[in-house]
Specification:
The complex is a heterodimer of chains A (1051) and B (313). With 1051 residues, chain A is of the alpha+beta class. Chain A is 36% helix and 20% strand. The longest helix of chain A is centred in the middle third of the chain and has 25 residues, at 407-431. Chain B has 313 residues and is mostly helical. Chain B has helices at residues 2-7, 16-26, 28-55, 72-79, 82-114, 118-133, 140-144, 152-159, 173-186, 191-201, 205-213, 219-230, 232-247, 251-257, 269-279, 283-309. In chain B, helix 5 (82-114) runs parallel beside helix 10, helix 5 runs antiparallel to helix 13 (232-247) and helix 9 (173-186) packs across helix 14 (251-257). The chains are: A alpha+beta (1051), B mainly alpha (313). The interface between A and B is medium-sized, with 20 and 25 residues.
Chain lengths: 1051, 313
C-alpha cells in the first residue's frame, strides 16, 4: 500500500511524457547555485550539460527494473586511481591516515578510478572520504561515470564534514554543559571537526530521491571520476554495490511479533536535544527558545541554550546525531518535543537512522505536523507511531533533513517549472514579452509541441494538488498556488486565444511556483528534548498549562527591569576589563550575529566588552561632532568624507596596521586613503560582474562576450529575439580599461577635458542612445524571464537571484565583465570599479588603542568567515558576503569556478579616490548622460560644458580644507618649471628629506587639539600655516629668488 | 472670572512693570499651565530661529569656532551663487503655481463637502485628506511614472504606440517640474483643508437667515458676505499653511527625482538649504539661506493677509 499513490502518479507522468516523446526538453536544475563557467569553456560545451537527461529518463532509457540488481559488490582502494596525468588532472598525494591507505585529492582537477563490473546491471556507487581541513564548507564534487555525468541528479555531490561540540560540562547533565558569560547567558559551544572516515553513497543532493542513486553499469571496466568543485579531501575506498530494498514497517512489526519482542520494562530514556553527539554542518548548533515555560532548561532572565535545529537545520541532508544508553532490551517508541510553526498546513520530515541504519523504509520519512505551539509526538509517518526494537547497550540515533513523502511532489513541481519556463521562452521568441492579445499568432500551427506541453503540465499540477490534499487531508494555501497555476496553464493550452492575453500571468505563476518550491523544501524543525520510552507509554505534555505560562511570563516581565539584554558579554565582574562602544547600521539579524561572535570571540580573547549599538544611517557624523560618538563604527560607507572634516582617526600609526592592510586587495585601500593616510579598514568590497543566461545564449548560438565590442555586436541578435542587455552606466569602467585618468594632480581638477575620458563616456552613452538599451529595469525579473540574458550588475546580485529565481538555478553563470581591447598589445583590459565599505575609529574615541584591536579582530579572516557562515545559516545561500578580506574570500562556499572568476575580477579592480568634491563629478556626469539620452545632445559636448563648474567646486572644497588648489599649483608649475605634479612632490620630498608616500598630508590634522591647520605636513618642525603659505606663494610669484618654503622662511 | 477681574485694580502709583507683575501673580495658574509649552517653544523654536540669524553672519561649519564674516554670506548668496538664483526661480515658480491653486482647491473642496450628508462628508473628507496624512504616499508616483518600459505610464504609452522608447519622467528636465507640481496639488488638501471644513461647520445658520432677510439673493453673495467673513481666522491659518508648504517644498522632488534633480530643473531653496546645511555642513551659509527663505515667507504672508482683509468688503 505504501507509496502507491506517488508511484501511480509517477507512472502516469512517465506515460504522458513518453507519449509526447522527445519534444519536451528537460533542463537540469542543480543545487542551489548558478555555476560560474570558466571564461575559456564555450557555451556550446556547457550547453551539452544543460541537455543532461533526468533520472527518470535515464531509467527508461536503460530499461530499469529491480530484477537487474545483481547483488554484486566491488570495492577498489582509492590508492589505485588512474595514474595517467591526462585522466587524473588533480594533484593527488598518497598517504596513510589512521592506518588507512588513502589519497589526498586537491580542490580542483579530477581523479578517476577503474572498476571491473562482474555483471551488467544497476549499481549504487560509494566513496569513503574524510575531511582534510576544518574549513567550514562542504566538500563538493562533480560525479562522472565513463567521463560523463550520467544524469542531472547525480552531477553534484556534497560530502559534508562532521562536527562535534566542545562542551564544558557533562552533556548528560542539564546544567553546566555550556560556558557562561559573566551575566549568566550561555554561550554557543565551539564546534570541532570530527576526523573520521565516512561512507558516502552517491545521492540526489536536492533530496528529490530518498534512495541512493542507481546507475546502469555494463560488464567490464568502467571509470568513475570525481571532478573537484570545492575543498580537498581524503579518499580511501571507491566501490559499487547493489541496493537492497528495506523492509516495510509492517514486515518489521511481524518480525517483532514472531520473535516475541515485548515493550521494555524500564524508565524512559531522556536527553536534551541541545547536546548532540555530532552534527553534519558547522552552522547547526544549540539555540535558545524563550517562548515556552517548560522548554528545558528555561530561565526567566538568562539565555539558556535549550533547543536544537530551528532555522539552522532545514536543508536536505543536514543531520544531528545523539547517543544514548539503553538499560533493557525491548520495544521502544521515540518521542520528541518539537516545534514546527513554519510550513503551514503541511508537515516537515526527518529520516531516522538507528545505529547508522534505517530500521525500515518508512523511517526515511518521519513526519512533524504544523502547529503554532510546541508539540510532543512519537516518530511516525502519520499512520503509525513507530516502534523500534533496541538491544541493551549504547545506541545512536540520527535525524536527517529530508523531503519525505513530499519528495515526489517537489520533484515533479520542479520539472513542471522547468517545462513551463521553456514553453514561456518559446512563446516569447515568437511574440515578444508584451504580445498583442488581439492578434492571431497561430500558436497551434507554429508550436503544437509547446501547446501540448502546457496541457500536460496543467494535468500534472492538478494531480499533485489532489495528492497533497489527500495526504494532508486539507487544502491549504500551499496547494492553492499549484491549483491556480494549473487553472491558468489549462486555460492557455485549451484555447490559443488565451495565450497572448495570459502570457505575463504565466510568467508570474512560474515564479510563484519557484517560490513554492523553495518554501516547501525548507524543512523546519526545532527540538527541545528526546524521550525514548517503552512502547505504549504516555507522552509528557507538550505545553505549559495556563498557570505555568502566566507565572513564567510574569517572571520574564519583572526580570526585564533588571536584566540588561543589550549588554551581552559585559564582563562586569572583572574590574580590569574595558568596554568599547561599537555602532553598526546593518540590520537587526546582522547585529545579533556580530554580537554573538564578538561575545564568543573578541571579548574572550582581549578581555574587552563590546557594547554594540544599532543606529540609523545618518547618526554617525553628527554624534562624532557632538563628541558622543562611538569608539568604532562598522559599515562606514564614505569614510573620507568624514576624514576630511577631521572626524575620523588615521590608522597608519597603530602597531599592527601594516599587517592588517596585507589582508586586502590594493584597490580596496584606495577609497579609504587620502594623501598617504588610511582612515578605514575595508570590510566589504563589491564589483560588477556579468550575469549570463547560458541556456539562452547557447540556444541563440552566442558566446560569452570578451570585450565591449563583442557585447555590442550581440545587441542586434538579442533585440531581434525581443531581448535586451542590462548595461552599466558606469563610464569609469571604460575610462580605466582604456588606461585613462579620472583626476588631475591628486584631485585638484577633473580630467574630463581629455580624449580618453570623452571617448569612454561617449562609448558608454552609445549603448543607450544608439542601441536603445533600457536604462531602468527590474534586473531580477528580466533576467529571470530571459528577456535580459546578459546583465552587468554587482556580484551581490548573485544573492538576489538565488532567492528570487530558484526556478532558473543552474541555467545561468556569472563571468568577468567584458574588457577593452588594447589595439597595440592585443590584450584585453578587464578593469572593473569596486565599491568598498569599511570600519572606522571616530575622533573622540575614548580608547582608540583598544578600538584598534577591535578593528584588527573584525577585519581578520576568522571573524569574516564566521560572520558569513552565520549569515548563510540564517538566511540561506543568498547571504554570501562580499568580503574584502582575501583569505576569508577563499573560504566562502563559492564553487571553484565561481571563486576563480571572482578572484580574477579582484585582480582587476580599481577604485576612485574620492578627493574632496567628488560627489559633484558624478552629479554632472549624470546630467550629461541625461541630456544625451533625453535630448539627443552630444555626450562629449555636454560633459565638456561642465568641466569649469566641477573644477570651480573642487577648488572651493579644497580651499575649505586648506588644500593646495589648481591655481596655486599652476603658479608653482609655471614659475619653477615642473612637468608634472609628481615631479614637484618628489622634488619637495627630497628637499626636505621625506618619504613621499607616507609623510605627505595636506589635510588638517589637529589630533592633539592644535588649532593650527597644516597645509603641508612634510616639515613637522616647520608647519606652514595657511596664511604663511599664501604669503610664500605670493613670494614665489613675485620675487625671482625664493624657491622653497625653507629659503623663504629663512629670508 | 468676574471676581478676578475686579481684584486686578490699577493702583495709580504703580509702574507698568509692577502692574504686569501683579497681574502675573494673580493669573499664575494660567501662566503655570502654559509654561510647559512656552518653555519648549522658546527652547526649540524661538531660540534656534534667533540664533540662526546670528549664525548666518558667521562661517560656522560645526567643527571650528565660527568667525564673524558680517554680510559676506548674503553677498555671496545673491551675487556669486548661481544655484541659489536657480533655486529662487524654481521656488517662486512653484509657490505661484501651487500656493494659490492649492488654497483655492482646499476651499472649494471643503465647500463642496460641506453640502454633503454627515456620513458621506466624513467618508469624502477621508478620501481627500488621505494623500497628505499618509506621509510618503507620493512615492507611488515613482512607480506610476517609472522609467522602466514596464512602468505604468510608459507601458501604456508604448502599448498605444505614442512613444517608441520609455520616457525617463524623473530624469528629464521637461517632465520633472510639471509632474512635481501636479503631485504637490494632489497632496495639498492638508491641514488647511481640514480647518476650512471646521470653519464651514462652525457657521451660525441664523446668520444666513438674517442675510436672506437682508436681501442676499444668491449663493455667491452668501459666500462673500456671510461665509467668508465668518471664517477669516481659518482663511488666515490656511494661507500660512499654503505659503509655508509651497515655499518649503522639496521633499517630494528629492524622493521622486533625487537631489539634485536633473540639471537642477526642480531645485528649490529647500534643496539648497539641505545641501549646504546637511551635506556640506556650511551651517553659516545655510543659515543665511534659511533666513532669506524666512523673509520671503513672511513677506508673502503679509501680502496674503492684506488681501484676506479685503474679504467681505
Amino acid at each position: 500500500m505504501r507509496n502507491s499513490k506517488p508511484k501511480k502518479l509517477t507512472a502516469l507522468v512517465l506515460a504522458l511524457v513518453m507519449l509526447i516523446g522527445s519534444t519536451v526538453t528537460v533542463f537540469a536544475a542543480d543545487g542551489d547555485s548558478g555555476t560560474a563557467g570558466t571564461q575559456s569553456g564555450t557555451l556550446t560545451e556547457l550547453g551539452s550539460d544543460y541537455a543532461l537527461i533526468g533520472y527518470e529518463s535515464y531509467k527508461t532509457k536503460y530499461n530499469y527494473s529491480t530484477d537487474m540488481r545483481t547483488g554484486e559488490e566491488v570495492t577498489v582502494s582509492a590508492v589505485d586511481y588512474v595514474k595517467d596525468p591526462e585522466v587524473t588532472t588533480a594533484e593527488v598525494e598518497e598517504t596513510t591516515v589512521d592506518g588507512v591507505d588513502c589519497i589526498l585529492v586537491s580542490e580542483s582537477g579530477s581523479v578517476s578510478w577503474k572498476i571491473d563490473i562482474p555483471e551488467t546491471g544497476w549499481y549504487c556507487v560509494r566513496f569513503v572520504y574524510r575531511a582534510a581541513n576544518d574549513k567550514t564548507t562542504d566538500i563538493e564534487r562533480v560525479f562522472k561515470i565513463n567521463g560523463k555525468a550520467p544524469y542531472s541528479e547525480a552531477r553534484y555531490q556534497n560530502m559534508n564534514k562532521i562536527w562535534y561540540f566542545d562542551y564544558v560540562g557533562d552533556p548528560s547533565e542539564r546544567d553546566g554543559v555550556f560556558e557562561f558569560d559573566s551575566t549568566g547567558n550561555e554561550l554557543r559551544p565551539a564546534a570541532v571537526l570530527s576526523q573520521e572516515w565516512t561512507d558516502y553513497s552517491v545521492k540526489d543532493t536536492d533530496g528529490y530521491y530518498t534512495t541512493p542513486l542507481e546507475f546502469y553499469l555494463e560488464k567490464g571496466e568502467n571509470t568513475i571520476t570525481l571532478d573537484g568543485v570545492r575543498d580537498k579531501a581524503y579518499f580511501s575506498e571507491v566501490g559499487v554495490y547493489t541496493y537492497e530494498e528495506l523492509p516495510s514497517y509492517e514486515d518489521v512489526l511481524k518480525e517483532y511479533e514472531s520473535k516475541g519482542y515485548e515493550p521494555a520494562d524500564t524508565d524512559p530514556i531522556y536527553f536534551e536535544a541541545e547536546t548532540p553527539d555530532k552534527v553534519s554542518n558547522y552552522t547547526i548548533y544549540p539555540i535558545y527558545d524563550r517562548s515556552s515555560a517548560i522548554t528545558s532548561p528555561q530561565d526567566k532572565a538568562k539565555i539558556l541554550r535549550n533547543t536544537m535545529g530551528g532555522d539552522k537545520w532545514v536543508t536536505n541532508g543536514q543531520w544531528i546525531s545523539y547517543s544514548f544508553e539503553c538499560e533493557e532490551s525491548g520495544l521502544y517508541q521515540i518521542g520528541i518535543r518539537f516545534s514546527q510553526d513554519v510550513l503551514k498546513g503541511m508537515y516537515t520530515s526527518r529520516a531516522v537512522r538507528i545505529d547508522g541504519e534505517y530500521p525500515f523504509e518508512e523511517a526515511k520519512a518521519c513526519q512533524f505536523p504544523y502547529d503554532n505551539k510546541w508539540q510532543t509526538g512519537y516518530l511516525g509517518d502519520g499512520n503509525n507511531e513507530f516502534r523500534f526494537y533496541l538491544e541493551k547497550g549504547t545506541h545512536t540515533i540520527e535525524l536527517e533533513v529530508c523531503l519525505g513523502s513530499l519528495s515526489d511532489v517537489v520533484r515533479q513541481v520542479d520539472s513542471v517549472v522547468n517545462s513551463l519556463n521553456n514553453d514561456y521562452m518559446s512563446i516569447v521568441e515568437l511574440t515578444g514579452a508584451d504580445p498583442d492579445e488581439y492578434r492571431d499568432y497561430g500558436f497551434t500551427r507554429i508550436m503544437p509541441d509547446v501547446i501540448a506541453d502546457l496541457g500536460i503540465q496543467s494535468s500534472i499540477l492538478y494531480q499533485l494538488v489532489d495528492y497533497i490534499s489527500e495526504i494532508n487531508g486539507i487544502k491549504s494555501d500551499n496547494t492553492s498556488t499549484l491549483e491556480q497555476a494549473a487553472v491558468l496553464v489549462e486555460k492557455m493550452s485549451s484555447d490559443e486565444k488565451e495565450i497572448a492575453a495570459n502570457l505575463s500571468s504565466l510568467k508570474e505563476w512560474v515564479s510563484s511556483l519557484g517560490t513554492w518550491l523553495s518554501d516547501v523544501s525548507t524543512q523546519y524543525l526545532e527540538m527541545d528534548y528526546i524521550i525514548i520510552q517503552p512502547a505504549d507509554s504516555e507522552l509528557p505534555r507538550a505545553e505549559a498549562n495556563g498557570w505555568q505560562s502566566f507565572w513564567f511570563e510574569m517572571q520574564k516581565f519583572f526580570a526585564s527591569f533588571y536584566a540588561d539584554y543589550n549588554a551581552i558579554g559585559a564582563d562586569s565582574e572583572n574590574e580590569n576589563s574595558k568596554t568599547i562602544e561599537v555602532w553598526t547600521t546593518s540590520g537587526r539579524d546582522q547585529a545579533q550575529i556580530i554580537k554573538n561572535l564578538v561575545n564568543n570571540g573578541y571579548t574572550l580573547e582581549y578581555n574587552v566588552n563590546v557594547n554594540l549599538k544599532l543606529v540609523a544611517g545618518g547618526a554617525l557624523l553628527p554624534s562624532i561632532l557632538a563628541g558622543v560618538g562611538p569608539d568604532a563604527s562598522i559599515d562606514a560607507t564614505n569614510p573620507l568624507d568624514m576624514a576630511i572634516r577631521g572626524a575620523v582617526l588615521p590608522l597608519n600609526d597603530y602597531d599592527t596596521f601594516d599587517e592588517v592592510m596585507t589582508r586586502f586587495a590594493d584597490s580596496a585601500k584606495d577609497p579609504l586613503s587620502l594623501y598617504g593616510k588610511t582612515y578605514a579598514i575595508p570590510v566589504t568590497q563589491s564589483f560588477p560582474v556579468m550575469f549570463c543566461r547560458d541556456d539562452i545564449l547557447s540556444e541563440l548560438g552566442l558566446e560569452v562576450p570578451e570585450t565591449w565590442d563583442d557585447l555590442m555586436s550581440m545587441v542586434p541578435v538579442l533585440q531581434f529575439n525581443n531581448m535586451d542587455i542590462g548595461m552599466t552606466q558606469d563610464y569609469m569602467i571604460f575610462l580605466y580599461q582604456a588606461g585613462g585618468e579620472y583626476w588631475k594632480n591628486e584631485g585638484m581638477a577633473i580630467n574630463f577635458d581629455d580624449y580618453t575620458t570623452l571617448d569612454s563616456f561617449e562609448y558608454m552613452c552609445n549603448f543607450f542612445t544608439q542601441f536603445s538599451l533600457p536604462i531602468s529595469y527590474s534586473a531580477e525579473n528580466r533576467f529571470k524571464t530571459g528577456e535580459m540574458p546578459v546583465l552587468i550588475n554587482s556580484y551581490a546580485f548573485y544573492n538576489t537571484l538565488i532567492v528570487f529565481a530558484p526556478e532558473i538555478s543552474g541555467l545561468w553563470s556569472f563571468y568577468e565583465i567584458p574588457g577593452t581591447l588594447d589595439k597595440e598589445t592585443g590584450e584585453v583590459n578587464r578593469t572593473s570599479m569596486s565599491a568598498i565599505s569599511g570600519i572606522i575609529i571616530p575622533r573622540g574615541s575614548n580608547d582608540d588603542e583598544t578600538a584598534w584591536t577591535f578593528l584588527d579582530w573584525y577585519s581578520d579572516k576568522d571573524f569574516q568567515v564566521d560572520y558569513s557562515n552565520e549569515m548563510m545559516a540564517l538566511l540561506g545561500p543568498s547571504a554570501k558576503q562580499q568580503v574584502a578580506n582575501l583569505e576569508a574570500f577563499e573560504e566562502l562556499p563559492w564553487s571553484e569556478s565561481e571563486a576563480s572568476t571572482l578572484r580574477s575580477c579582484l585582480d582587476h579592480t580599481a577604485a576612485i579616490v574620492p578627493y574632496p568634491g567628488n560627489y559633484y563629478v558624478g552629479r554632472y556626469a549624470g546630467f550629461a548622460f541625461n541630456a544625451a539620452y533625453n535630448d539627443k545632445e552630444d555626450p562629449s559636448d555636454e560633459l565638456l560644458s561642465y568641466v569649469d563648474t566641477i573644477n570651480k567646486e573642487l577648488t572651493r572644497k579644497r580651499k575649505e580644507f586648506d588644500l593646495m588648489v589648481d591655481d596655486e599649483w599652476q603658479a608653482i608649475k609655471d614659475y619653477m618649471g615642473f612637468e608634472s605634479f609628481n615631479d614637484w612632490k618628489e622634488y619637495w620630498a627630497e628637499l626636505n628629506d621625506l618619504d613621499i608616500d607616507s609623510d605627505t598630508t595636506y589635510i588638517q590634522d589637529n589630533r592633539d587639539g592644535a588649532k593650527e591647520y597644516t597645509y603641508v605636513d612634510w616639515m613637522d618642525d616647520n608647519k606652514i600655516t595657511v596664511e604663511s603659505h599664501q604669503k610664500w606663494l605670493n613670494a614665489v610669484k613675485y620675487d625671482g629668488e625664493t624657491r622653497t618654503y625653507k629659503e623663504w622662511v629663512e629670508k | 472670572m468676574a471676581k478676578k477681574t475686579k481684584d486686578a485694580t490699577y493702583n495709580g502709583n504703580m509702574t507698568k512693570a509692577q502692574w504686569t507683575w501683579l497681574l502675573m501673580k494673580r493669573y499664575k495658574i494660567g501662566y503655570f499651565m502654559i509654561a510647559p509649552f512656552m518653555i519648549l517653544f522658546f527652547l526649540f523654536t524661538v531660540i534656534p530661529v534667533v540664533a540662526s540669524i546670528f549664525v548666518s553672519l558667521t562661517d560656522y561649519n560645526m567643527l571650528q569656532w565660527p568667525n564673524w564674516v558680517g554680510l559676506n554670506n548674503y553677498i555671496t548668496l545673491f551675487l556669486d551663487d548661481d544655484l541659489f538664483i536657480i533655486a529662487l526661480k524654481n521656488t517662486l515658480l512653484f509657490a505661484v503655481a501651487v500656493g494659490p491653486a492649492s488654497y483655492l482647491l482646499s476651499f472649494c473642496v471643503a465647500w463642496f463637502i460641506n453640502e454633503l450628508s454627515p456620513k458621506m462628508r466624513a467618508f469624502v473628507t477621508l478620501i481627500f485628506y488621505a494623500p497628505s496624512i499618509s506621509g510618503g504616499a507620493y512615492t507611488i508616483f515613482s512607480y506610476i511614472f517609472a522609467s522602466d518600459s514596464y512602468g505604468l505610464v510608459n507601458g501604456w504609452l508604448l502599448k498605444f504606440g505614442l512613444i517608441d522608447s520609455p520616457i525617463l519622467f524623473f530624469q528629464n528636465t521637461k517632465w520633472v517640474m510639471p509632474l512635481c507640481i501636479a503631485i504637490a496639488l494632489w497632496m495639498s488638501l492638508g491641514t488647511a483643508f481640514l480647518s476650512f471644513i471646521a470653519g464651514l461647520q462652525g457657521l451660525d445658520r441664523s446668520q444666513f437667515e438674517a442675510a436672506a432677510v437682508d436681501g442676499i439673493t444668491n449663493r455667491w453673495q452668501e459666500l462673500w458676505y456671510v461665509t467668508l467673513p465668518n471664517m477669516k481666522s481659518q482663511l488666515r491659518f490656511g494661507a500660512v499653511m499654503a505659503i509655508t508648504g509651497s515655499f518649503g517644498f522639496g521633499a517630494v522632488v528629492t524622493a521622486l527625482a533625487g537631489n539634485p534633480s536633473v540639471e537642477y530643473c526642480a531645485y528649490t531653496i529647500a534643496h539648497h538649504l539641505e545641501e549646504y546645511g546637511g551635506s556640506r555642513m556650511e551651517v553659516g551659509y545655510a543659515s543665511a539661506i534659511s533666513f532669506v527663505l524666512f523673509l520671503i515667507m513672511v513677506g508673502a504672508n503679509m501680502l496674503v493677509q492684506k488681501l484676506l482683509a479685503k474679504v467681505g468688503e
